[in-house]
Amino acid sequence: MKRFQRVLLVGAMTTLHSGIVRADNKQCANAFVEAQKFQKAGQLTAAKEQYVLCASKDCLAAVRDECLAKLDDIEKATPTVVVAVTSADGSDLTEVTVYIDGEQVADSLDGSAISVDPGKRVFRVEIPGADSIEKTVVIRAGEKNRQLKLAVKPEEKPSPADPSTTEPDDVPVEISTSEGGPGVLPWIIGGVGLVAVGVGAVFWLGAESKAGDLEDAGCEPNCAQDDVDSVKQQRLFGDIALGVGLVGIGVAAYLLLTGSAKTDTTEDARLPIRLAVTRGGFTTGFSARF
To answer: Cα–Cα–Cα angle for 78, 80, 84, nearest 5°?
Structure first.
């Protein structure tokens, strides 16, 4: 009886072992088929994983030998890339995460090569405390240890403000009239003379109007002394202004006609003009010695 039980147990174990072998052989065959599909599609890393499965010692010798041969071809054709990331100061960074086409392939860098499928690939590295870096490259079949160097961009410093777009402070500019032509002195003197003539005319017109009012009132010679003094004062101011104006016009004409403003290059003949650009416009002033 015991002998019969031992025979049944050995038979069961043999049957179970045969089932496992058959199951392994089926997995090996499936891995071989999938590996060929991936290889034709250019997905060499996925094909490599399947060839590794069917090259297992548990697979049939014929399948194993074929997978080993294919695995050697895949190893030669699969490109590898060595990713290097440097900080803004040029030092190497290791604590980075590397993605290829959105799939994480490394959580740190140690100088080792990373297997990648040939074709157009998007590399992205994520760096703690810095912006991620992304670069698209074309990887060629059989290319080994291609160097892919990425660098963290330095922080951009704000550029100096454009002087043309900012409001200027007061900028004094001195213009000398001692060189070339009669200069501006005759024109300034002539302008002052014209203004003085106009002021004198205003005073005289006012005085004559007031005198006419007093005459029409018939108060002469007993008009109020204040009114009489006002008429005289306006006539006096008018005479002074007209005199200054005529003198100024005469001096300006003389300087223009004789050209003395052009030939006189001494310090006394210079007319420094100062312009100051301000936020509201500009101011101007001049000084001269006679």
So the answer is: 165
